[in-house]
Design brief:
Radius of gyration: 38 Å
Helix content: 40-55%
Order of helices and strands: HEEEEEEEEHHHEHHEHEHHH
Number of strands: 11
Number of domains: 3
Strand content: 15-25%
Number of helices: 10
Distance between the termini: 137 Å
Shape: rod-shaped
Structural class: alpha+beta
Length: 312
């Protein structure tokens, strides 16, 4: 009986010691797991001992060794929206997005350590590179990638039959209004003096400034400039994409006003082709409104100038 008791005590003690050893092993964490597409740096008192890229279970010295894990996947960073001045001194709003990766794990750990530091440094360098490149390039180069838009003849049809316009039937008021003279010149076969000869005969030719680089080339320049500054941090930017390019509020108003003016001119040309009499009346009303309040001369109401004001 005494022998069985002693054997039981020894068994319990062995199990207890085993459990205690397991608890100690688990608490000091001598193993770590590395997933696919992960890289680990093992440090001892802040000094890099080795790097590990193979997925699986790995051993480390308890207490002495620290494991720092980083992903080998591509990561994304969105730039801060910026208001940037172009070469023409026009403000535009630019927003970019980029993909990046850790290219040198040792440099990354020694210079940045954490992802938070990496994102902060990336944001500063990419945003400054975007500003530097856009500032010395034209607006057209920023928003377009090719000159294909000018390869074809872009015209807009108004449904005006040029054969229906006869110079002798063009009743335009005899004034000093440049628009009136230009329309008369166009109708009488002198398109070089007209404001838009093609609009008068039924079309508008659309042309755009040629570019020597383009948006894609500028993105490549920004990428090169940024990577030159990031090499010491063990970071590589894969690509930089313009996510959004917008006119500034001031430039947007100017562009809209110019578009409205152009469309009004086109509409007037179309109106002229369909009803020369009405178009002449409308233009004369505009001349009266702008010219009469400022004139100090005494004018006769029998003048051709007032044909629509007093004879209707």
């Amino acid at each position: 009986m005494a022998t069985n008791t002693i054997q039981y005590i020894k068994t319990v003690r062995a199990v207890g010691l085993t459990v205690l050893a397991l608890i100690i092993v688990i608490s000091v964490k001598p193993f770590y797991i590395l997933k696919e597409r992960e890289t680990a740096i093992i440090t001892q008192f802040g000094e890099i001992i080795k790097t590990e890229t193979k997925a699986g279970l790995h051993f480390k010295m308890p207490v002495l060794h620290q494991v720092h894990k980083y992903t080998a996947k591509l990561l994304r960073i969105d730039g801060d929206p910026q208001k940037i001045l172009t070469k023409e001194k026009q403000f535009i709003k630019v927003n970019t997005t980029s993909r990046w990766r850790i290219s040198d794990i040792r440099k990354f750990y020694q210079s940045l350590v954490t992802y938070e530091s990496a994102y902060s440094r990336l944001s500063d360098i990419i945003d400054s590179s975007v500003r530097d490149i856009i500032t010395v390039n034209s607006l057209a180069n920023v928003v377009r990638s090719t000159n294909d838009i000018n390869k074809n003849s872009h015209k807009e049809e108004f449904g005006i039959n040029p054969e229906s316009i006869h110079p002798e039937n063009v009743p335009i008021a005899n004034t000093d209004n440049p628009d009136g003279e230009a329309l008369a010149d166009a109708a009488n076969g002198n398109p070089e003096n007209s404001i838009n000869a093609e609009a008068i005969v039924g079309t508008e030719k659309v042309s755009y400034p040629k570019i020597d680089k383009g948006r894609d080339a500028l993105a490549a320049e920004i990428l090169h400039k940024a990577n030159n500054q990031l090499d010491d941090f063990g970071i590589e930017v894969i690509d930089i994409i313009f996510k959004e390019i917008k006119y500034s509020d001031e430039l947007q108003v100017s562009v809209y006003n110019r578009m409205i003016k152009d469309r009004n001119q086109i509409a007037q040309a179309a109106s002229y082709g369909k009803s020369p009499e009405f178009y002449s009346f409308w233009k004369s009303m505009e001349v009266y409104q702008s010219a009469l309040p400022e004139t100090e001369k005494i004018l006769s109401t029998d003048m051709e100038y007032f044909k629509y004001l007093y004879k209707h």
